[in-house]
UniProtKB/TrEMBL annotation:
Gene giving rise to this polypeptide: YME1L_1
Subcellular location, principal: membrane
Species classification: Eukaryota, Metazoa, Ecdysozoa, Arthropoda, Hexapoda
Matching PANTHER family: ATP-DEPENDENT ZINC METALLOPROTEASE YME1L1 (PTHR23076:SF97), METALLOPROTEASE M41 FTSH (PTHR23076)
Domain of life: Eukaryota
GO CC annotations on file: mitochondrial inner membrane
Boundaries of every AAA+ ATPase domain copy: 275-412
One Pfam family from the record: AAA_lid_3
Residue ranges crossing the lipid bilayer per the database entry: 201-223
GO molecular function, one term: ATP binding
Compartments it resides in: Membrane; Mitochondrion
Entry similarity comment: In the C-terminal section; belongs to the peptidase M41 family.
Keywords: ATP-binding, Hydrolase, Membrane, Metal-binding, Metalloprotease, Mitochondrion, Nucleotide-binding, Protease, Transmembrane, Transmembrane helix, Zinc
GO terms, biological process: mitochondrion organization; protein quality control for misfolded or incompletely synthesized proteins
Native species: Polyplax serrata (Common mouse louse)
Name listed for the protein in its UniProt record: ATP-dependent zinc metalloprotease yme1l
Amino acid sequence: MFRNVGLQHHRHGILRAYHRSHCLKRVKTEKSLKWPTVRCKQSIQSYQISTGEYGKSTEVVGDDSRSLPKGPSTWKAVEVFLSSPKYLGPSRIGNRQIPFLLPLEGKAQVKRHFSTGTDESGQPKKTGLITRILNLFKLQVFKSKTDQKLKKGKNDLLEDASTAEEAEKLKVAFTDGYLAATKQIRDPKPPSKFMRIVTPIMSLFVVSGMLICLVILVSGTFFRSQIGKYTEINQEEIHVTFQDVKGAQEAKQELKEIVAFLKNPERFSVLGGKLPKGVLLVGPPGTGKTLLARAVAGEAKVPFFHVAGPEFDEVLVGQGARRVRDLFKAAKEAAPCVIFIDEIDSVGSKRTNSMLHPYANQTINQLLSEMDGFHQNEGVVVLGATNRRNDLDKALLRPGRFDVEVVVPIPDYAERREIIQYYIGKVLAKDVDVEMLARGTVGFTGADLENMVNQAALRAAIDGADGITMPYLENAKDKLLMGPERKSRIPDDETNLITAYHEGGHTIVCFYTPDSKPLHKVTILPRGRSLGHTSFLPEKEQYLVKKSQLLATMDTLMGGRAAEELIFGPDKITTGASNDLKEATSIATHMVKEWGMSEKVGLRTVDVNQRSSEAVEAEISWLLQESYKRARTIIKNYSRELKLLVEALLKYETLDADDVKAILMERRKN
C-alpha cells in the first residue's frame, strides 16, 4: 500500500490527517520576485519571515528562529497552510499556519520544531497533534540540476516515531497524502450551517413517524385478534358427564346441585332460593378440576364458555377488562350457561397499589363488577379453578361472588384403584394387579395415573408386545417416581458394590424393624440422579402416623449409611446418603417442633422456619443419633444376611419383596 514517494506527499498526508479536524487548506506560492512579510501565529507566539528580492539573502526574525537554518539563505518558495477555506492573501493569514521554507541549492539538515506558545503562568502549552507529528522526523533537502525534489522513505519516517500509536497515525497520513497528491481522493466539503441544524431534526421526525406507524399496525392487529377469542362449546359438543369423572365423589355431589339449577331454574325461583353465582374448584394440578367443569355443562346440557386466566393478560391497556365484558355479555345472551375460568389466580390475584403498574387492577375490578351485575337466578354460573387459593383477592371470595368452594383432593387408595381400572379398560392389558398398582402410587393424581398407563402402552407398542403387562406398568411408575433408566450410565464394579451394600442396608433395617413400611422392591439400576432405590408399599391408605412408625422410617433411612460405615470403614463412606439424611432430619424436626413428640421440649409447637433454641436443636440431633445407633445394631446382627442380599443384587440387579423374603428366610433355615 505504501510507496517510496517524495516528502511532499508525506507532508501533505500528515497535514491532511490534521485537516480532518481543522479543515486545513494547502496553498503554494512560487516565482515571486518580491516576497511580502508573512506573519504566522500559533497561540501567543508569532513567526515573522522577511524576504527580499529573489536570490538575495533573507533575514529570519521570531522567537522560534532556532527551528530554521542559521545565517544568510536564499529561498525559492514559501508554502503556507491555511485554516480558512479561502486564501485571502499573505497579509491576512490566520491562526495555526505553518511556514515551510526550501533553500535554493545545497544540502541542509533542518530539524523541524514547532512550539505552541505559553499559558498565563509562562509554562509551555501542550503540543497539538500536528506539532507532535512534525516533530517525529528530520528533513533532508536535495537539489538536482533540473528540478528540486524532496526525498524521504516511508521506513525512515517510521523509525523516527516514538510510539506505535504515532507510527500508525503516520502510516495513515502517508497513505492519505499520497492519494490526495495523485488526485485519487478529494477533500469532502463540510456541510453548511443550515444542514447541520436541519439534519438532526429531520432524522428525529423520520424515526418518530416509523414508531407511530409500527404502534398503529400492532394495535390494530391486537384489537382485531381480541374479538371472539373466548370459545363457546355447544351442548352437542360436550360429551363428558359425571360418569367419566372417576374419584372426587364429594366434589361431584356438590356440583350436582349446580346441574339441577341449570336444568330447572324456575323451581328455585318459586321457592325463593338463590344458588351461588360462582363456584371455586380448589385442588392440586391434575386432580380433574377442568374435567369436573366440563361434566357440569355436559350433565346440564347448556352452553359452555371456557377461557384461561392468562388469556386476559394483554399488552395494551384495557384489553383484559374489555374481554371480561365481552365474555359476560355473550354468556347472558346464551343463558342458562356455564362460564369456566381456568387458572383464575392469574386474573383474580390480589390487587396492587404499585405506581409502576397503575392499570394492573383493571381486569379484576371488571370481573368483580360483572359478577355483581347479574342476578343469581339469571341462569349464568361461573366456575373457577385454581391451585393457589391464597393468591386470590379476598373480594373475589366474599358471598355473592365465589361463595362456594369445592375442594378436589388427590385421590385416595379406593379412588386410585377406580381410576387405574378405568384407564386400563381403554387399552389392551392382561394380568394386571390393580390392587398393587393402587397401593404403590400414593400421591399420584388422576393425570399421573393416566400418564402411567399411557407410558406403559407406548413401551409395549415399541417392544411389539401383544398387550400391557405388570412389568410395563411397574417400569412406567418408576419412571414417573425416579426418572428414566440411565442405561448409558454404567457404574464400575466398585461403585456397584457400594450401591448394593447401601440399598441392602435399607432393606435389612426395614425387614427387621417393627412398624416399618412393607418392602416393595430394591434395585441397583441407575434412574434419574440415583444409582439405586429401595421402594416401599403401604398396605392401606394412611391418614395418621404413629411415633413408632416415624422412628422406624428414620431407622430405615439411616440403614444405608450404617452399612457403608460398617463394611468399608468410617473413612470410606460416600455422598449417597445425602437424600436419606435430609428426609430423616425433616422427620426429626417435625417431631420436635410440630408434633410434640419430644420429652425434653414438651408439648408445644415451634415455627419450623424460625431459628430454634439450643435445646430444640440438641433434641433433633439426639433423635438422629439414636436412630443411627439402632440401624448400626441391626446391620451388625444381620451382617451375613446383608452379604447374601448384596450377592443377589449384583447378580439380578432388581429384587422384589418376595425375592428378598426368600433370601432372608433361606439364611434363617441354614
